[in-house]
Amino acid sequence: MTGDILAGKKVRLIAVDAERDSKLFAGWRNNSEYLRLMDADVALHFSIEKMKKWMEENELSDEVAFFMIKRIEDDQIIGEIGLSGFQGKHSNAYVGISIGEPDNWGKGFGTDAMQVILRYGFSMLNLHHISLTVFEYNPRGVRSYEKAGFKLEGVQRQFLHRDGRRWDMYRMGILKSEWEELTR
Length: 184
Hints:
Elements: E1 11-15, H1 18-28, H2 32-38, H3 48-59, E2 64-71, E3 77-84, E4 92-99, H4 109-124, E5 129-135, H5 139-148, E6 151-162, E7 165-175, H6 176-183
Parallel strand pairs: 4-5
Antiparallel strand pairs: 1-2, 2-3, 3-4, 5-7, 6-7
């Protein structure tokens, strides 16, 4: 690991460039499995222009720290990660992550990116608690979050109807004290 707070062993978090990254996002959203893992909403495909507008709006927000995930080995941008909702006296935030191309799934890039954003959130933003949600049908995501130190905090039973059945949504979180213990 380098001294760069935004670099991990496999990935580096970089600033969003709406012009460059809107094309990547629009392409990733053409994959139904990507959408299924990422969101409970109805799968909608967005144009490059709509993605660019969304990214520009989120770049300007004081309540979002949004980054692209770049592989260190070849400088390819492979996903996105961000913290949101961290304004306020309680120092809590929500983290969201996605790895775009299925070829990059299950290779530790997401876990490494999550460890980097936790370091950023706890050491730079002085957050107290970071949480996320993940669907029951994404055990690979659950394992990745557990490796990064997240613990199950609750279950919203039968939250989502997909594939002809009801699925739970898990809420997972990590406290700053737990992260500090893991990184000692």
